[in-house]
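SEQUENCE-TO-STRUCTURE ENTRY
===========================
Question of interest: how does this chain fold, as expressed in backbone structure tokens?
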Amino acid sequence: MPKAIVVHETGGPEVLRYEEVDVGSPGKGQALVRNSAIGLNFLDVYFRTGLYPAPSGLPFTPGNEGAGEVLAVGEGVTHVRPGDRVAYVGPLGAYAEKRVMPADRLVKTPDAVADEQAAGMMLKGMTAEYLLCRTFKVKAGDTILYHAAAGGVGLILGQWAKHLGATVIGTAGSAEKAELAKSHGFDHVINYRSEDFVERVREITNGRMCDVVYDSVGKDTFPASLDCLRPLGMFVSFGQSSGPIPPFNLAILSQKGSLFATRPTLFTYVAKREDLESTAGNLFDVVSSGAVKIEVNQRYSLKDAARAHADLEGRRTTGATILLP
């Protein structure tokens, strides 16, 4: 029988158990996929700890991102067929050797993109796409601030934003991570452990501040992120690696310059099949062209998922991390 990671109770990395599972056959609208690589994301930690409840309840298999080969399809599936190379951001269940999943979440992987690349970039890369191209449409001349610049989304978004012609400012927690970010499109990187990022943004921009702040950190960077925005700027909170942003009075947005604030998720932006295909297509295009390079910096065996989670939470990873079945 194939194996997968199963969570029977929420908690620390130790709750990730490597077990045999019964996968079954694809039904109507489904496909059976053999994963060749699986993406690791902070979102997986949120589900493991129970911060985000698993829709199916307990037990569940975590993971939303992977790449591999279609082995079989169910009734009504025509856009993929057995033998196709595919990648996906789908419902929970990616931490597995094989899985049955909704076929409408699968996109074909172009020849120019390797499976390991695809597995490490789908969630993070499509997140960068909707942040830059739809939540706030970044254009040449814009100035952006991105927190956690050396993270998986950050290294993709930095390159992409630079490709769009923006001035790209990031924050990172060490000199090594700052250098990594600078090599991936960031014009300026602020070490938040030793520098006041609001004051540094003020210096870098000569007081103009930023058009948009992209923040996946949460509690530790709020409300200071609002002070990095120009009047009518946008605060985009799309994660909370340091904990959730506490409740706040909306009046603070008017006081700090009639600001906009939003809390988007990728799954809303790609809920429709046509939006998924467009978002993935844009990502594949910038990667295939070489404008955005995807580097897999860490690889773990699927059975070592607990160690991978511990390293992710301990901020010992950079860029893309994958699990190998």
About this structure: The first helix runs from residue 42 to 49. The chain is about 30% helix and 25% strand. Residues 124-266 form a domain with the Rossmann fold fold (CATH 3.40.50.720).
